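Risk register update: the risk of archive-format incompatibility is retired. Evidence:
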Amino acid sequence: MGIPKYIVAGPSEMLAITGKGIPEILLKKKHFLWPLQKCTRLDISPVNYSFQVQAMSAEKLPFYLPAVFTIGPKVLDETNYESLIKYAKLMSNSEKESTHIKDLVKGVIEGETRVLAACMTMEQIFKGTKEFKQQVFDKVQLELNQFGLYIYNANVKQLVDVPGHEYFSYLGQKTQMEAANQAKIDVAEARMKGEIGSKLRDGETKQNAAKIDAETFIISTIRQGEGKKEEIRVKTEIKIFENQREAEVVQATAELAKKKAGWSQTARLAEVEAEKAVAIREAELQMEVEKKKAFAETAKLKAELLSKATVEYDVKVQEANSELYKRQKEAEAALFESQKKAEAQKASADAELYTRQQAANSELYAKQREAEGVEMTGKAEATYLGSILKELNHNYPALRDYLMINNRIYQEIASTNAQAVSGMQPKISIWSGSNSGDNGEGGSGLKDVAGLYRMLPPLLQTVHEQTGMQPPAWLGTLPESK
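Archived output:
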């Protein structure tokens, strides 16, 4: 037996010993290494891994999540011995800073981060950074436990915009503009208080009221747009859930049909095998009967019937073999036909499932595009009305008149009134009588009577033309129209 070699591990190392006398793996800080034993030094110091994970929120907004993870195996103690055994088995042949381990850690972190981000909105991720970091930490640690790795520290940095999707940039610009506008409002208010004083309190009250009305209108418009957007999103999710359930039903139906085909095939094979066994047994019994008969005939008839019995025996054997071969071919043909039917049913189920999946995807895409169009139209109309109202100094009657003119409401009203009076043909008759003063009529009383008498003919003529009625005979008759 050879001389053992004494080996001591460094402060950040661990000795993994395998070989003779060791059932699996032995972890030590110092050890006598005997012949037929092998020792591997494990570096258990943690290593920093920096990643920039690209994920997508529940609103389908992409973003970058920079993160730095400090990962390594735990220091050996009674609680984590099994964890170090896993690390020694799975990771001892790779350097900790190698591409293999880095890709492994990166894959785990990216997968868990994307799954978690897909369940949260961008606002939830941004405001709940601490909870988001803790959830990512817990889920990644759960996956790394199977490799014997432990997260010593995890630092999730601020979220970064993906080029082409500048969500945080626009959010920052919005905050900056709100602060700048608020500062301008404060400066204007201080100047107003210093220069004008109490005389413009009433004017300031009216301005603030108009501003509050405008902001209320804008916020109401935004809330309506958000409500429509949420309603469309809920309807879309319900449609997706229904499509998924239909796909699962189709898949379950296909699996059931496949299993039924397998069971039918098994039953058919069992029936064929039973028929074969019965046929073989019948042939064997028939053969034994014929042998017994031949033996009896041979014993009885001796040599003269020996040749005849032999010939009969050969004929029976040939018939039995022919019958057996025929039944085997029939069973193989039935089995082949059952297999082809099962394959055809499976292909049909796969085609139908693919067709429904494509139809569901197309409908989902159309609904998404329709929702985006409604949202963009609402935002554009709100922005357009807000800008017009601002240019009109928040004069709502002027805005109403502008919208009615722009939408040709006044023109339509005028056209409707013109159509209402179209076709009317009023008849106007003008009668004139000579006024010759008193003309010997002897006073104003007779003049009034004469004026009344002159008024009757045109009045009766007008009534006749409009209604067709004739005056009474005692009052007079109208001249015939030419």
